[in-house]
Amino acid sequence: MPYKLVPKIRNEDVDAFLNGWEDNRVRGLIFEPRQNMRLRYLVTAYHFRHRVAFGFVDSEEIRQKYQVPQDMDTVLLFNENISSPMASLSMKDIPTSTLHHIVSSNQYLALPRLSSQEVLEALCPCEWNKPRKRLCVVLVTKTSSNHDLHRQSFRIYAQNSPYSVEKVRFAYIYHDKQTEFVNSLIPEGEFVEPLLRVVILWRRDTSHVKYEWISDKWEWENNLNQTTQKLDSTISRLLRSSEALTYEASVNDLFDEHAKGIFGRIATKVGTFMESVYDGLSKDQILPALSIIGTIVFILAVGYFMAYLVRLEEENIQQQKAKAKSGNNNNDSSNSSYQPELRLHELRGEKYNGLVRLLKPGCRTILLVLDMQSRQQLIPPFHKAVWPYRKNKTLMFSYMYIERGLSWYKELLQLSLPEERELNINPRNCVGTVLSLNGHRKYFCMFHAKHTERFSKKKRVKLTKPFEEKDCESGTFIGFDSDSSESEEEILLQENLLDGLPNWLDRLFEGTTQRYHINYWPDFPNK
């Protein structure tokens, strides 16, 4: 049996228990002249658990309130009216058959809710024969306290109805929970607002119903007499075997509003198991169980602490090995000095603000321009040239692929020229350029191997034409207005492009290099 299937009811709990009929179940009180409930009542409560909620009374005040005999077994059944029971049974020894009969005859409220297909089958059984048809009069409401008065007035009408329950049953339904069922009763091509309307059903079989709507809404305060008269006349007319209901529809089974999901069922079973274990354990059983649990927890804690100590010892040994290894590699000093890392960042769209635009005052970015073919030859000499400046916290070092940043580079050079003109830039002639970018003060300095003031004659190969000095500010030394990857005057090998970079860096930090000022930093392409 489910744990706490029949709870004990005391004087302070009886009202809350009897008023719980909102779950669409009748309430039953069991009185016995003994402390423990008989098994027959427990079995009956389990059998009718979906329709009736039973409670075992353990209070003399409740017994006196309902005038229950002291020496007899008594069962009281309550519907929505909790002031007096709708059925009662008192005997010295109630037979099981008699108990089942009285409960099965009173297992529905005065105005039950169509909350599942099982309730619909019990209240509105299928009947295909017209003379024996059974009507089900249903008020459509929603799950809201605003409709409580409408349901209450409809309940009073159902209790005072002259029709027998074998022919006519009254009920209500929640539209917001049984939407599919209610919407299937709306005639095709017609607009019917189902809320607070009464529909009369005749179930011919499990999936086909005939129905008819009452035109007026069920208002508990306005025109109630007129609506009840119209409903009485409609029911009387439809009970005649010669009369037929207006509409017919195919309907699906009702949604079970009381069904629990898989997680709800698991939680219920776990809670029931824990409560049963808690109530079943005595003090003599709890102390050994706590002792066993405490021992297990202590063993796990000690094991975790020992593993933690072993891990600390291993880390200490590894650190000592690392120190010994570094001491062997450095014979000049016993304590090796910390060497800061030199990181080269690739200039991309997502890093552009951090490397250029949002640089703090006094900070600069040293940028190497290269392409995919020259990466392996230019990165090592560039790294070697800037290595002495790795400890300078005002410097960042990066590189840019000319294939990705050509448009940005072209616009940057145009902003630095004194007059506006269209530049024809050969990307190959830009390889090996080094820029010093001052993001805050908006200027840059440029290094290029063909700049006349920084050119090393050892690495040049003379051609027939003599070298002509070019104005560095005009930008011709980096290949503007040139379509060939080699200048007409000289050939410069790719591995020698950065030979003069260390000297240029010295002049850069002395402040003697040429500065090209611009009004703004152009946007970097995001591709």
Automatic annotation (TrEMBL):
InterPro entries: DnaJ_C16_autophagy_reg. Keywords: Membrane, Transmembrane, Transmembrane helix. The keyword Membrane applies. The chain crosses the membrane at residues 286-310. It comes from the Eukaryota. This is Uncharacterized protein. It comes from Tenebrio molitor.
